[in-house]
Specification:
The complex is a heterodimer. Chain A contains 13 helices and 15 strands. By secondary structure, chain A is an alpha/beta fold. In chain A, helix 4 packs across helix 5, helix 8 packs antiparallel against helix 10 and helix 10 packs across helix 12. By secondary structure, chain B is an alpha/beta fold.
């Protein structure tokens, strides 16, 4: 007769109203982080809340001390019109950029203003335990120098150079750090610093940074393409990062495009695309072409230097630049076609090269096809990941505080 | 608190509708409806237990649902000692939804109740040379009304109509941007035109996106939050699911993979980089053309009538057909790899007249085997040519039920 439906738990009564207030408060915080509001009216429109729910959420945040009202000097029919600001001093967060060669840490206030930065080489000390120890040291140093008390720390976020499972908080695998396999980085950070932690892949972290303070502010659909030793993309789709099923969305270094080799990639070896237009690939192209000219042995330049030489008129370097730009243009074109994405932010040691950007954009224009994505060089540069880490830490702090 | 934080970084969020009708009541109604639809008839006490809502809230919401005609008592259940409880059921017959698929040569219709159960379907051929937008609209109107009449459903009962079109569609405005297969179809405000034919809501959507939605609803992609459905027929396209919903891109063209540049095309035709080159090779007409071209050389060459025949011949051991199959599979494998690397889906499904051929799938699987990156399960769609219609029904159901809840909500609050 009557079948009992499978139980789903759902809050009720007072608990439910509290949950609603929490959700609203988070939405208000989110809006305050993305925009400057001169008055509550604008906020009301953006957050999409009714005025009663909005004022409940705001007074909740004000009571908590997270948000303060600042007079903006205007008055609206006798009613004082206040601007809302996040209280910078409510607490502090730590952003960590864990790279193959450097570990960088920043301390920021609740508005995301950076109070200090610290960095150290990871070339010799790269085991998980050593890295955590260095992070602990760095944070202590930063707290002392900024005269910030440890108890005001609310959250930490770290970007890692490999496949990173954000739900589990685990760095699954990376070829840039020795001995890193299935490292529970979030748990390690939480127990070392005794604050909530979040982890993310470094390229996706940089995409968060560019979306917050860089070249893709307020853009819902864009791709951050990092070209350094390897190649990877951080994809924003409808305002959210794409992670895929196994946290590997955007690992485009293995893409097959015309002009790149097609053998199946082995583990540990660079992917098809990376092997031609990654930093090493470009240097190999240069050495091969330069030595082929028979004018003595070629000097060992970096990819960026080779591209600068091309701009200065070196014919061999020009050939390398052209070939690299053509292949990069294919990759960008294919990605933009699949995602219908019009904006690409180029980052990383090789990606930041202006001659490469210009040449690639020219190829894209020459294709004269309906999709013509725009290429922009990252405006945050090497800081993108650190900025993204601060943003993610702020999100974590907001969640924990409300 | 271990939720994915990065996923919460929402930018450009669409504003939520303000205030009325109360979000909570709406949510509660949806929760109870979901329980009734999934678990079948049950008592209020069952609903209280399963939803975690309070008894008065459930009573309130059930009254509201009954007023909207969505729920009714069907008598008494077993007593557990006291007064036997009233058993409630979801009234799936309260209304119906229709899905329409526009194809170059025909229209297909499917009618379903609010549980998504098929009530009836029909196919109407189009007079090709004159399939102009107004005519197709007229045919859709006749088709839907004819089907309703045949099933003795009054027209007011139709709550939602979703139309799939083989073209890029601005879903928000209901505008078909370009449809090469039919004449005079460019920037056609199909949504507005059909709104004149029907009293209910009309939504226009790209057919491949709907096919993906259909496979997610009741086909091979059930429970897959991130997947891609590739259709290969007259043309080539992909429907992309990200986090459980269709991803359309910034100008509605996400998944237009017919224009990808993959290595094998360039090697074969290094100088030709035509718009849609890949689509022309991989689509059914391209396969037939290649087959006919090779046919001239040999008398023994068997005759084929469609692209699938060529793949059947390959399966039977015909060397020329095998070569052709291998070539196409190589192109498809490159597409699959690119999609897997960019999106990391849990599965990529193949469908369409050419795409759903098992030999093609086999060949693609062999080609992908060596790679350790961009590894993805590849499979066939399960719904065949009805995927689009089921996708249409699926996307019609939720707005249909919400539409029934809204008017009485605003009068009561």
């Amino acid at each position: 007769m009557s079948k009992t439906p499978t139980a789903i738990s759902f809050p009720r009564g007072a608990q439910q109203r509290h949950l609603q207030k929490q959700i609203d408060a988070r939405e208000v915080l989110q809006q305050l982080r993305e925009h400057d509001f001169d008055s509550c009216d604008i906020l009301e429109r953006h957050a999409g809340l009714s005025s009663s729910r909005l004022s409940a959420a705001i007074s909740f945040l004000v009571k908590k001390g997270l948000v303060g009202k600042v007079s903006n000097g205007k008055s609206d029919a006798g009613r004082r019109n206040n601007a809302l600001r996040i209280n910078a001093g409510y607490g502090h967060v730590v952003g960590v950029d864990l790279g193959g060669s450097n570990l960088r840490i920043a301390l920021a206030d609740m508005n995301g203003r950076v109070l200090g930065k610290w960095s150290i080489s990871t070339k010799r000390t790269s085991s998980p335990d050593m890295v955590i120890e260095q992070i602990r040291k760095g944070v202590t140093y930063l707290l002392e120098h900024a005269s910030v008390s440890r108890s005001s720390l609310l959250a930490v976020a770290a970007g890692a150079p490999g496949i990173t499972d954000g739900d589990a908080g685990v760095v699954v695998t990376t070829s840039y750090l020795k001995g890193w396999k299935d490292v529970p980085l979030r748990r390690l950070l939480q127990s070392a610093l005794r604050i909530p932690a979040a982890v993310e892949n470094d390229v996706r972290m940089a995409a968060i940074g560019e979306n917050w303070k860089g070249a893709a502010q307020g853009v819902g659909n864009f791709v951050f393409l990092a070209i350094g030793t390897g190649i990877a993309a951080g994809v924003f789709a409808s305002g959210r990062l794409i992670h895929g099923t196994d946290w590997t969305a955007g690992e485009v270094g293995y893409m097959h495009v015309p002009g790149a080799p097609e053998e199946a990639a082995r583990h540990g070896a660079p992917g098809s695309l990376e092997s031609v237009i990654g930093g090493e690939g470009i240097r190999k192209q240069w050495l091969r072409s330069r030595n082929g000219t028979g004018v003595g042995a070629a000097r060992n330049f970096t990819a960026t230097e080779i591209f600068e030489r091309a701009r200065a008129g070196d014919l061999v370097a020009k050939g390398v630049l052209n070939r690299s730009a053509k292949i990069l243009a294919y990759a960008v074109y294919n990605i933009s076609l699949v995602l219908n994405c019009g904006l690409f932010i180029l980052g990383g040691g090789v990606g930041m090269s202006l001659p490469l950007r210009d040449a690639t954009q020219r190829f894209l224009e020459k294709y004269n096809e309906p999709v013509q994505p725009k290429l922009i060089v990252s405006s945050l540069g090497p800081d993108a990941q650190l900025v993204g880490a601060i943003r993610l830490a702020l999100s974590k702090a907001d969640q924990e505080s409300v | 608190m271990d939720k994915r934080v990065a996923g919460d970084l929402t930018v450009m969020k669409e504003p939520v509708r303000i205030g009325r009708p109360p979000l909570l009541r709406q949510t509660n109604a949806q929760i109870l409806l979901r329980l009734l639809r999934e678990a079948g008839p049950c008592s209020k006490a069952d609903l209280v237990r399963a939803s975690g809502l309070s008894a008065p809230t459930v009573t309130n919401v059930v009254a509201h649902l009954a007023l909207a005609g969505l729920v009714e008592p069907i008598g008494e259940g077993d007593s557990t000692g006291g007064r036997p409880p009233d058993i409630l059921r979801f009234r799936a017959e309260r209304g119906c939804v229709a899905g329409v698929e526009i194809r170059p040569d025909s229209l297909r219709f499917l009618l379903a109740d609010l549980d998504g159960r098929e009530i009836g379907k029909v196919r109407v051929l189009l007079e090709k040379p004159s399939s102009s937008p107004p005519l197709v609209c007229k045919r859709i109107g006749e088709g839907v009304r004819g089907l309703l009449r045949k099933l003795s459903q009054p027209e007011e009962r139709l709550l939602e109509l979703v139309v799939g079109v083989p073209a890029i569609v601005n879903v928000q405005e209901g505008v078909v941007m370009a449809l090469s297969a039919l004449k005079d179809w460019s920037n056609v405000p199909l949504g507005a035109m059909l709104a004149g034919e029907f009293k209910c809501n009309v939504t226009i959507e790209n057919d491949t996106n709907l096919a993906a939605q259909g496979e997610y609803y009741r086909g091979a992609a059930q429970g897959e939050k991130n997947f891609v459905f590739i259709t290969i027929g007259e043309g080539v396209g992909a429907g992309i699911f990200v986090n459980g919903s269709i991803y359309r891109g910034s100008q509605w063209t996400a998944g237009e993979i017919g224009y990808l540049r993959v290595p094998n095309i360039s090697r074969e035709h290094p100088t030709i980089h035509n718009y849609g080159k890949l689509e022309k090779l991989l689509g059914a007409p391209g396969i037939l053309k290649s087959w006919q071209a090779n046919r001239r050389g040999s008398r023994k060459h068997p005759k084929v009538s469609c692209a699938a025949d060529v793949f059947d011949l390959a399966a039977a051991g015909n060397a020329e057909a095998k070569r052709l199959l291998k070539q196409r599979a190589t192109l498809l494998a490159d597409i699959v790899l690119d999609l897997a690397l960019i999106l990391n889906p849990s599965v990529i499904l193949l469908g369409g007249e050419v795409g759903n051929h098992p030999r093609l799938l086999q060949e693609v699987e062999v080609l992908l085997k060596g790679s350790e990156f961009g590894v993805v399960r590849v499979g066939l769609g399960a719904l065949g040519h009805s995927a689009v219609l089921w996708g249409a029904i699926c996307s019609a159901l939720e707005p249909a039920v919400l539409g029934l809840l809204q008017p009485s909500d605003s009068t009561s609050s």
